[in-house]
Input
Amino acid sequence: MLKNSSIFLEAFLHVPHTLCGRKLKPFCLAHLLVLDHLESPFIAGGSPKLQDVLIAANVCSAGSFDAIQINLGKWGLFDSFYSLTKELPKFEAYYKDFALLPDFISKQGMAGSGVDGLPWSICLVMRALQNSSYTMEQLMFLPLAQLVWITLGVNFIESGETIVETDKDKALLAQLKALGI
Output
């Protein structure tokens, strides 16, 4: 398991990724939401097929919602050129590179939960919109892990609302769990 300090660095340092011949943009909230809407097995769980990899390549190579719509119209054009066994590990490496999120505890409830039933993704965007000059579209395409870290930092500085869980915290929680507490 990675320490939060390593996860923080991972959020800002990346290698280029390609999938099915497409150069991928940093994985962001917009990509997550579109793949979730399309019930991608990468987000919803399940066994991905080549079609799922091609769709993910077209979504994650786009830097705007317009580009996502254009790319999704092309997903079936090149499917005979690619192999699931070669492309699937590439997507998994890409996702791990951009979507490795810190462990954190919210005083509102469960780790990573939203507020009053709102999805955590919307809470991130709302908080970032409140405290920055970013537009909604810019926030949606900001690398996901960077958006999480920035929001956690703003929350902590302004209110102490969110606390990044340390390795000591994790060890203590494991000991308490083992004791049945």
About this structure: The radius of gyration is 18 Å. The CA atoms of residues 58 and 71 lie 5 Å apart.
